[in-house]
Design a protein that fits this description.
The protein is an alpha/beta fold and 226 residues long. It has helices at 10-22, 33-42, 59-68, 84-92, 105-118, 152-163, 171-179, 187-204, and strands spanning 2-6, 26-30, 47-51, 75-79, 97-100, 126-129, 132-135, 140-143, 146-149, 208-213, 217-222. The strands form three sheets. A five-stranded parallel sheet has the order 2-1-3-4-5, with helices on both faces. Strands 6-7-8-9 form a four-stranded antiparallel sheet, with helices on one face. Helix 6 (152-163) packs across helix 7 (171-179).
Length: 226
């Protein structure tokens, strides 16, 4: 599952990230309403965890704008307020569920799973970008009838890049999601695995490349034939 966390309290955001990672979920974390809207509109998420009181743009406005733009990703609102009127207001703006702080991690995860099922989507078995097909159950990468097996970290990095094909993914985000917050991994670890993936793309004869934007991040790009 791929989860977007929009929360301006850094300690709570970090705690939410840890809860997601312990459940083997991918996650992105942003701290303002405008960034949350940008990620929600341009990313590919199963659930958005959205705080109500945010700088730049409040959570009600974020979810309302998401719905206006046709983004139907399930939204779980978080707030310190427990008034029924606030809950109704959030749901009327387009949110799918509502939790009051503080909350139990177990209940949060249960609600996230329930929201992800509401969409009626079938759990993906494959991811595709350009001529590449990634089989999630086997870690095998296919292209033009040929395949190669990916190591765990190669697989996790490529999965993140495929899921977020319209977004530049930073090295810090890859380290957090693949190695974990408490690891000693550094930028050169990410660079090494990006190099491994590029070599495997070349071996398969793929037209897909991994583009590096200096000081910003990586994204997949399909090469165009001349």
């Amino acid at each position: 599952m791929n989860v977007l966390i929009v929360e301006d309290e850094v300690r709570l955001a970090d705690a939410l990230r840890e809860i997601m990672l312990e459940s083997k979920y991918l996650c992105d974390v942003v701290y303002t309403g405008t960034d949350g809207l940008d990620y929600a509109v341009n990313g590919n998420y199963d659930v958005v965890i959205l705080d109500v009181m945010l700088p730049q743009m409040d959570g009600f406005s974020v979810v309302q704008e998401m719905r206006k733009q046709g983004i139907q990703t399930p939204v779980l609102l978080l707030t310190a307020k427990d008034d029924v009127s606030d809950k109704i207001d959030g749901l009327n703006h387009g949110a799918d569920d509502y939790m009051t702080k503080p909350f139990e991690p177990g209940e949060l995860l249960a609600r996230i799973r329930a929201l992800s099922r509401r969409t009626g989507d079938v759990i993906l078995e494959e991811l595709q970008f350009g001529d590449l097909l990634l089989v999630l159950s086997t870690n095998d990468l296919w292209c033009k009838g040929r395949s190669i097996h990916l190591s765990f970290k190669e697989f996790e990095i490529l999965k993140i890049l495929m899921i977020n094909s319209n977004i530049l993914i930073s090295k810090d985000s890859l380290i957090e999601n693949v190695w974990g917050n408490n690891s000693d991994a550094e930028d050169n670890n990410v660079e090494a695995y990006i190099s491994f993936l590029r070599k495997k793309f070349y071996y398969l004869g793929s037209q897909v490349g991994i583009i590096a934007v200096r000081k910003v991040g990586y994204r997949l790009e399909e090469k165009k034939n001349a």
